[in-house]
Amino acid sequence: MTDTAPPVAVPTPIPAPDQRAERLAREHLDGLAKPLGSLGRLEDLAAWISACQGSVPARPLDRVRAIVLAGDHGVAEHGVSAYPREVTPAMVRTFVAGRAAATVLAAQHGVDLRIYDLGVDDDLSGVPEEVTRYKVRRSSAPLHLTDALTEGEARRAWDAGVAITERVIADGTDLLIVGDLGIGNTTPSACLIAASLGLPAELVTGAGTGVAGEALQHKTALVATALERVGERAQDPWQRLVALGSADLVAGVATMVTAANAGVPILLDGLIAVAEAVTAEDLAPGVMAWCRAGHRSTEPGQRLALEKFGLVPVVDASMRLGEGSGALAAVPLVRSAVLLMGSMALLSDL
Ligand SMILES: O=C(O)c1ccc[n+]([C@@H]2O[C@H](COP(=O)([O-])O)[C@@H](O)[C@H]2O)c1
Ligand SMILES: Cc1cc2nc[nH]c2cc1C
């Protein structure tokens, strides 16, 4: 890691969740009317939420919110996705209509979901201004040929992520999900994970929307070319975002740093959210302590990054959709974990 300070205000150090509350939470959980440890990972989740809140038992997760960040990617014009980029604006409209997988799940689970266009390659006419007001540019440059963003664009994307998150937090947020939308975005995400974890393209590149065979080999080669192009600069997390990211990915990193700094726990989704989280951790060490894995994506880069941080997913349902959908599917279990902690009888009361 180089010592170059990023040109944006990154809060450091990120405060840690309350370890005393976590210890007391574990004692409380051990005393409930059940065999010791029998609620498995639900106990870990409850103790983590207690630590994030500094409260035992933890308060119910009434206000779960999701921020979905949309953008297109220049690399999508180079044969890395199974779908054309026109899908991205069409899906933004589907979100607005409440008929995307993520909006259906959010409605089912009472999660407030807001979608923002950071870099969709379309003017999205007719879509509410609230959705497009943070747009930085249309698409990004093809990252295997040139830097994805200029420094100025990356800064604007960062500021947008901070502003979006500050508004969401001001409205009251007990748990935050960061979702993504954008044809081609598994390629920059694989690059960010490779650079952060020091792994080769072959280990982190996956099928995305469904590329296989020769197309997957081509995608892997393109990730390798991008990493080679950027070289040592990729050691620096800010330069990594400028060179290999996109406006939506930069905003996602800013969202996670801002939420962690404000003491808001984050439930991670698939490859893209995890790529944002590992980059956030490199920029602002301590962010990952505020994160848990909502689900396991089928993407190899997501699995490797979760393993590095010892994060075990709540849901493992072979999902690979993005949008925040995997984390949204995990919300009922996380809520149950907290409810059990606060509502069960004590073993000593039996
Ligand atoms: O979150 C994941 O793990 C995930 C895995 C595969 C695909 N996606 C979604 O599919 C799109 C990117 O896939 P691709 O093949 O176009 O790079 C984008 O809209 C993502 O939300 C998401
Ligand atoms: C239809 C469709 C919906 C999506 N949602 C997230 N990524 C997506 C990719 C496609 C192709």
Automatic annotation (TrEMBL):
Gene3D superfamilies in alphabetical order: 1.10.1610.10, 3.40.50.10210
Pfam family, one: DBI_PRT
An MF annotation (GO) of this entry: nicotinate-nucleotide-dimethylbenzimidazole phosphoribosyltransferase activity
Reaction(s) catalysed (UniProt annotation): 5,6-dimethylbenzimidazole + nicotinate beta-D-ribonucleotide = alpha-ribazole 5'-phosphate + nicotinate + H(+)
EC class: transferase
Keywords: Cobalamin biosynthesis, Glycosyltransferase, Transferase
EC identifiers of the protein: 2.4.2.21
GO BP annotations listed: cobalamin biosynthetic process
Biological pathway: Nucleoside biosynthesis; alpha-ribazole biosynthesis; alpha-ribazole from 5,6-dimethylbenzimidazole: step 1/2
NCBIfam families, per database record: cobT_DBIPRT, PRK00105.1
Function: Catalyzes the synthesis of alpha-ribazole-5'-phosphate from nicotinate mononucleotide (NAMN) and 5,6-dimethylbenzimidazole (DMB).
Family listed: Belongs to the CobT family.
UniProt-recorded name of the protein: Nicotinate-nucleotide--dimethylbenzimidazole phosphoribosyltransferase
